[in-house]
Design goal:
transmembrane, membrane, mainly alpha, about 0% strand, transmembrane helix
Length: about 100
């Protein structure tokens, strides 16, 4: 059953992809700021906690904006795309030696 306020089709894909990408980049920046970018910091499990939080926070946002009915494939897509962008953004910050901790 679809609601009139639900986003469907191409717009749904664009919205989900955009939110996943932004959440992944934000998770990378927050990981760098909260955990750090030293080689020792890169082994911290706190990085994965930050990533998991950013993955889980997306679902209420999707519900608010009218994207629903996530299947297994959709959930894997959200987790994988968020992880990929987090990994790339955190890696770039760590390799370049950026220090976001004040």
């Amino acid at each position: 059953m679809s609601d009139d306020s639900e986003i469907t089709g191409h717009a749904r894909g664009v919205v989900v992809t955009t939110i996943c990408a932004l959440a992944g980049i934000a998770a990378g920046v927050v990981s760098a700021a909260y955990v750090g970018t030293d080689p020792v910091d890169a082994g911290s499990t706190t990085l994965l906690v930050v990533l998991a939080a950013f993955v889980l926070v997306q679902y209420p946002i999707y519900k608010i904006i009218g994207v629903s009915d996530f299947g297994a494939k959709d959930n894997l897509y959200v987790a994988f795309l968020t992880f990929t962008l987090w990994f790339i953004s955190y890696s770039v910050l760590a390799v370049s030696g950026v220090d976001l901790v004040a």
